[in-house]
């Protein structure tokens, strides 16, 4: 790909607070790079080394010096299969668009309590108006089954046994009762089916149940084209944010208002916490060089985008995405808190996976969906591990490991290394000679000069810089190929 990258290395930075945990005295440490211009191929390689960007600022966590361990996580979109809960999110969303109604989960209306935590007195049982003759019979049967130490009380015309049952016995009884109930219902359904087959003159022994066709992600989530027949009109629109397209400029104010609502409601930010300038720097400006897909017309191309979710003519959510040679990288997502009941966070991730699958048909190697960092000790971030198959990056070897094989190590505490560096694996501190690093610097006449690092040191009469060696170790071959290090 054409285009060169220009970056400035900032070295280590230490923050006194952590955004992910509330441990007193905690903090995070990271390496920092300011990217003036970044080739999408270079940024893809940086992602695969554990880097992320926020606007023009790129950072890589230093796990040994941070309270929380941040692992880059990605999902193979072509192998993705939605879970039952993810299917429910898509079905509820579709039902809302079609009918205009949203049915909450049954368990949302009450709080579950452990039965073992509730205590009943004999008076409460007797005064219960729902108690009938069947209950009286059950109590008497219970008395006959109890051991002789039960206390039998005469209350009116009833005999009541008060006893204490071990938790294991209770669980055994409940599980056995549930299992018998399920078997009974299944048996009845089977008997009804056999009768229907016999009425039709079909031998039940020759009947084979037809299995419903297996649905993929697209079958569940591609319903926006049918919105003309729905109560609500919904569609998704991808607009280039850098360089800003006309659509981006036209919808900027509306998108910014949704962002402020989200930050105040979800993150408890103050009304003056976010200015337009700060919002642009955080989610709109990007160092990525926009490029078209090779040999493909009328498609998005590489670069930075805002994925807008429109409902009835207004923006209700926005996903901030980077489209790179091997992946779609999800940078941030925000939504109108009024529509929180639609589970837009999960829905947007599914929609972005579907977009990745679509682009993979055009660019076969573009089939990964990057979800940022997975933080095992932060409950709010664990949802990222629910999109299977997912893989975590080992920052020591720069290899990917299935998340299932990493959870055991993560449960033991902060873990940033999933395997030893074996032959053929990329070692973190393997780097090219610093003498061949490409550099940009101003001479005495204030002209911008491009040379290798060795020439720069000879011209300036300087000794080798430890931070330049650190930069070379972190970026590897990129530092000597087409990425220029700006030296102020």
TrEMBL record:
Q: Does the keyword Transferase apply?
A: yes
Give a GO molecular function annotation for the protein: arginyl-tRNA--protein transferase activity
| All copies of domain N-end rule aminoacyl transferase C-terminal, residue ranges | 254-394
Q: Where is the N-end aminoacyl transferase N-terminal domain?
A: 16-88
Pfam families in UniProt: ATE_C, ATE_N
Enzyme class of the recorded protein, top EC level: transferase
User: Under which EC number(s) is this enzyme classified?
Assistant: 2.3.2.8
InterPro entries listed in its UniProt record: Arg-tRNA-P_Trfase_1_euk, N-end_Aminoacyl_Trfase, N-end_Aminoacyl_Trfase_C, N-end_Aminoacyl_Trfase_N
Q: What does this protein do?
A: Involved in the post-translational conjugation of arginine to the N-terminal aspartate or glutamate of a protein. This arginylation is required for degradation of the protein via the ubiquitin pathway.
Task: Supply the name of the protein.
Answer: Arginyl-tRNA--protein transferase 1
Report the source organism: Trichinella pseudospiralis
């Amino acid at each position: 790909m054409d285009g060169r990258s220009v970056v400035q290395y900032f070295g280590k930075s230490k923050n006194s607070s952590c955004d992910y945990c509330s441990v007193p005295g905690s903090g995070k440490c990271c390496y920092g790079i300011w990217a003036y211009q970044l080739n999408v191929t270079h940024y893809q390689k940086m992602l695969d080394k554990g880097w992320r960007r926020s606007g023009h600022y790129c950072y890589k966590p230093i796990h040994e010096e941070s309270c929380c361990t941040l692992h880059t996580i990605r999902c193979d979109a072509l192998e993705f299969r939605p879970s039952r809960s993810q299917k429910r999110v898509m079905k509820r969303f579709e039902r809302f668009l079609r009918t205009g109604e949203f049915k909450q989960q049954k368990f949302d209306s009450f709080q579950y309590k452990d039965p073992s935590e509730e205590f009943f007195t004999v008076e409460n049982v007797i005064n219960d108006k729902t108690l009938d003759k069947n209950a009286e019979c059950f109590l008497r049967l219970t008395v006959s089954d109890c051991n002789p130490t039960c206390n039998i009380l005469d209350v009116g015309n009833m005999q009541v046994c008060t006893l204490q049952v071990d938790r294991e016995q209770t669980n055994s009884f409940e599980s056995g009762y549930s299992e018998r109930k399920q078997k009974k219902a299944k048996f009845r359904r089977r008997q009804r089916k056999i009768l229907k087959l016999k009425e039709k003159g079909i031998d039940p022994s020759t009947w084979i149940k037809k299995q419903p066709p297996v649905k993929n992600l697209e079958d569940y989530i591609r319903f926006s084209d049918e919105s003309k027949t729905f109560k609500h009109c919904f569609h998704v629109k991808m607009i280039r944010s850098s360089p800003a397209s006309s659509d981006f400029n036209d919808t900027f104010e509306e998108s910014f208002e949704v962002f402020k609502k989200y930050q105040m409601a979800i993150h408890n930010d103050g009304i003056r916490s976010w200015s337009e300038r700060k919002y642009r720097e955080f989610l709109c400006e990007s160092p990525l060089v926009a490029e078209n897909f090779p040999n493909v017309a009328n498609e998005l191309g590489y670069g930075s985008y805002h994925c807008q979710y429109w409902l009835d003519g207004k923006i209700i959510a926005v996903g901030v995405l980077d489209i790179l040679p091997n992946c779609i990288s999800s940078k941030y997502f925000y939504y109108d808190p009024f529509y929180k009941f639609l589970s837009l966070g999960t829905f947007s991730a599914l929609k972005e996976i579907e977009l990745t699958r679509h682009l993979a048909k055009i660019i076969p190697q573009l089939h990964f969906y990057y979800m940022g960092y997975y933080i095992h000790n932060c409950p709010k971030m664990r949802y990222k591990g629910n999109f299977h198959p997912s893989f975590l990056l080992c920052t020591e070897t720069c290899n990917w490991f299935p998340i299932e094989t990493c959870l055991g190590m993560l449960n033991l505490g902060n873990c940033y290394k999933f395997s030893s560096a074996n032959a053929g694996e990329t070692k973190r501190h393997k780097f090219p000679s610093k003498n061949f690093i490409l550099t940009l610097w101003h001479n005495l006449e204030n002209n911008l000069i491009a040379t290798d690092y060795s020439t720069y040191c000879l011209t300036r009469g300087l000794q080798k810089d430890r931070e330049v060696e650190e930069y070379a170790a972190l970026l590897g071959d990129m530092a000597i190929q087409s990425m220029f290090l700006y030296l102020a």
